[in-house]
C-alpha cells in the first residue's frame, strides 16, 4: 500500500514538473510590436526642424512627420511625437525605452553602439558654407581651427574618427540653422550642413555661399530602434519598418514626400523687380477687379491684397504648392473650409477667401499692436500661423524688447528655428526666416504697386511711411521726392 502511495506521489510530481516546464516554454515575452499594439500608441522621438517635424499654420507637418504617420497608419496605430533637443538625445530616448523609434537620424558608428538602424532611406551630400567676400576655403584642411559645428552631430563623429588633424569647435547651444545665420553675418568663418538645409537657408541669407562639397563623406539618414540586446532579440517592429521603407521607395511615395518638402527650395526665392513689373503687365489686369472688389468689401488696400497674391502664386489661378495649397491666394484646405471657399482655383473665391482670412489674422492681433506694424504681424500669421507669431512676441517680451514693433518681431521670427528658443515656445519650430522674408517681399511688392498705380494717373510714387496704415486710402495724395524702391533693400 505504501508502495502504491509512493508511486502515485511520484506520478503527481512528474505531472506538476511537466506542466511547469510546458508553461515556462509557452509563456514568452511579447514582442515590441505586440507591446506597442497593446499600448495603442507608437512613441516617436525626433527634433524640431525644417527637415523633420514642426507646426505650421495648418498643423503638424514635415517630411519625417508625414513618413512616420504613414508607417503608423499601415500598422493601425496612433502615434505621439516626442521632441528632443538634438539627434543624440533621440538616440538616447530610443536606447532607454522612452521612445519606440527615432526618425530622421543621421547614422554614425558611435550611434550604432546605442541603437539599431534601418537601412538608410536618404543620402545627402555635406557642404561647407562660408560668407561671400570672405576667404573661400578650398579643402577641409583650410577649415582647421575655424570650423564650428553643432554638438552631437554624426559628422563630428566622422571627423573625430577619420580626420583627427582637423581642429573644430562644437557649440552646445546652437543648431545648424543658427550657425549658418552666424556665418552669413560674418561672426563665424564656416560650418557644414546637408545640402537640403543649405538650399533652404540660402533663400534667407544672400551672403551665404557653398565653398565645396565633401566628396569623402555622405550623410545617411535612417530610423533608430532599440538594439537587439535591449529587446532580447526581438525583430517585430524593426522588420515592419524595413518592409515599409522598402515599399515607399519602390512605389515612389518616398520621392513624392521628398519633392513636397525639398524639391522646390532652389526654385523659390526672391523674384527681381523686372520680373514683377512684367507680371503686372501680363497678369494683374486679369484679376485686378477681384482684388479691388475684395479691398472695398473688407476695408483693405487692394494693392496689398494683390501683393499677397503675387507672393503666394505669381497671380497664377492654377498654382499648386508642393504642400498642396492652391489658387491665387494659396489657401490650405483648412483655411478654405473656414472661409467657405468651395473651389480654391476659382480666382474670385480665392481672392475673397484670402482677403477674409487676412482680416481674421488682422483682427486677432492684440490691440496694442498699432498700424502699420499690425498689418505686418498679420501677414506673418497668414504665412506661418497665429500661434507662432504669438510665440515670437513672448520671446521678445521675455527679453525686454517691445513685442508690438515689426522691427523687433522681424528679428525674433528666425529664433523659432533655434533650439535655445524653441524650448521656450508653445508651438515649437516654425520657418521663421521664411515668414520674415515673406512679409518683406509683400511690403516691397506693395510699394511697387503703389508706385505703378499712381503713375497711371501721372502722380509721383508715394512712399509707405511708418505712420500710414496700408488699409484702403482715403485719398491719392502725391508725395514728392520719393527715393527709388529697391527690392533688395535690407529695410524690407
Keywords, separated by commas or semicolons:
492 residues, alpha/beta, D-Maltodextrin-Binding Protein, domain 2, Lysozyme, 3 domains, seven-stranded mixed β-sheet, two-stranded antiparallel sheet, 11 strands, 14% strand, cell outer membrane, ligase, peptidoglycan lytic transglycosylase activity, membrane
3D structure, described in words:
This protein is of the alpha/beta class and 492 residues long. The chain folds into three domains: 32-118 and 223-259, Periplasmic binding protein-like II (D-Maltodextrin-Binding Protein, domain 2), CATH 3.40.190.10; 122-221, D-Maltodextrin-Binding Protein, domain 2; 273-456, Lysozyme, CATH 1.10.530.10. 48% of the residues lie in helices and 14% in strands. The protein contains 19 helices and eleven strands. The chain has helices spanning 2-26, 32-39, 63-75, 87-96, 109-112, 154-162, 176-184, 195-202, 236-250, 253-262, 273-298, 302-313, 333-338, 347-364, 373-384, 386-398, 406-412, 419-422, 432-456, and strands spanning 41-47, 54-56, 59-61, 78-84, 101-106, 115-117, 122-131, 147-150, 168-171, 191-194, 208-226. A hairpin with a 2-residue loop joins strand 2 (54-56) and strand 3. The longest helix is centred in the middle third of the chain and has 26 residues, at 273-298. The radius of gyration is 28 Å and the shape is globular. Mean pLDDT is 82; it is low at 16-27, 267-271, 456-469 and 472-492.
Amino acid at each position: 500500500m505504501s508502495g502504491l502511495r509512493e508511486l502515485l506521489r511520484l506520478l503527481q510530481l512528474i505531472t506538476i514538473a511537466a506542466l511547469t516546464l510546458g508553461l515556462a516554454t509557452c509563456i514568452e515575452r511579447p514582442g515590441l510590436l505586440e507591446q506597442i499594439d497593446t499600448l495603442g500608441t507608437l512613441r516617436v522621438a525626433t527634433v524640431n526642424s525644417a527637415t523633420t517635424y514642426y507646426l505650421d499654420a495648418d498643423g503638424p507637418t514635415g517630411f519625417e512627420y508625414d513618413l512616420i504617420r504613414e508607417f503608423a497608419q499601415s500598422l493601425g496605430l496612433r502615434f505621439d511625437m516626442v521632441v528632443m533637443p538634438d539627434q543624440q538625445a533621440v538616440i538616447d530616448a530610443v536606447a532607454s525605452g522612452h521612445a519606440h523609434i527615432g526618425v530622421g537620424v543621421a547614422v554614425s558608428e558611435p550611434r550604432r553602439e546605442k541603437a539599431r538602424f534601418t537601412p538608410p532611406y536618404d543620402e545627402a551630400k555635406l557642404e561647407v558654407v562660408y560668407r561671400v567676400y570672405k576667404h573661400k576655403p578650398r579643402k577641409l584642411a583650410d577649415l582647421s581651427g575655424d570650423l564650428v559645428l553643432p554638438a552631437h552631430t554624426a559628422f563630428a563623429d566622422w571627423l573625430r574618427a577619420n580626420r583627427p588633424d582637423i581642429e573644430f569647435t562644437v557649440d552646445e547651444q546652437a543648431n545648424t540653422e543658427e550657425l549658418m545665420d552666424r556665418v552669413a553675418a560674418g561672426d563665424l568663418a564656416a560650418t557644414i550642413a546637408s545640402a537640403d538645409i543649405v538650399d533652404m537657408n540660402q533663400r534667407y541669407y544672400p551672403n551665404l555661399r557653398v565653398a565645396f562639397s565633401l566628396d569623402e563623406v555622405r550623410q545617411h539618414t535612417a530610423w533608430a530602434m532599440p538594439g537587439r540586446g535591449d529587446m532580447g532579440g526581438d525583430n517585430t517592429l524593426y522588420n515592419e519598418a524595413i518592409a515599409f521603407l522598402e515599399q515607399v521607395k519602390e512605389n515612389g511615395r518616398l520621392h513624392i514626400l521628398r519633392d513636397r518638402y525639398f524639391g522646390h527650395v532652389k526654385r523659390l526665392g526672391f523674384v527681381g523687380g523686372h520680373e514683377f513689373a512684367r507680371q503686372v503687365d501680363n497678369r494683374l489686369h486679369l484679376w485686378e477687379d477681384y482684388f479691388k472688389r475684395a479691398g472695398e468689401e473688407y476695408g483693405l488696400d487692394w494693392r496689398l491684397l494683390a501683393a499677397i497674391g503675387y507672393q503666394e502664386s505669381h497671380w497664377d489661378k492654377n498654382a499648386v504648392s508642393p504642400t498642396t495649397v492652391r489658387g491665387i491666394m494659396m489657401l490650405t484646405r483648412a483655411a478654405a473650409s473656414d472661409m467657405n471657399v468651395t473651389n480654391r482655383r476659382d480666382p474670385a473665391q480665392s481672392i475673397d477667401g484670402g482677403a477674409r482670412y487676412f482680416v481674421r489674422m488682422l483682427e486677432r492681433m492684440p490691440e496694442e499692436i498699432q498700424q502699420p506694424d499690425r498689418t505686418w504681424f498679420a501677414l506673418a500669421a497668414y504665412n506661418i500661423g497665429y500661434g507662432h507669431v504669438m510665440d515670437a512676441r513672448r520671446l521678445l517680451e521675455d527679453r525686454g524688447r517691445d513685442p508690438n514693433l515689426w522691427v523687433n518681431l522681424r528679428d525674433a521670427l528666425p529664433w523659432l528655428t533655434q533650439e535655445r528658443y524653441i524650448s521656450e515656445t508653445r508651438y515649437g519650430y516654425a520657418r521663421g526666416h521664411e515668414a520674415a522674408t515673406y512679409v518683406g517681399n509683400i511690403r516691397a511688392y506693395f510699394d511697387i504697386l503703389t508706385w505703378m498705380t499712381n503713375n497711371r494717373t501721372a502722380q509721383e510714387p508715394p512712399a509707405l511711411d511708418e505712420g500710414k496704415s496700408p488699409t484702403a486710402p482715403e485719398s491719392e495724395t502725391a508725395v514728392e521726392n520719393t527715393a527709388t524702391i529697391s527690392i533688395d533693400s535690407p529695410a524690407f
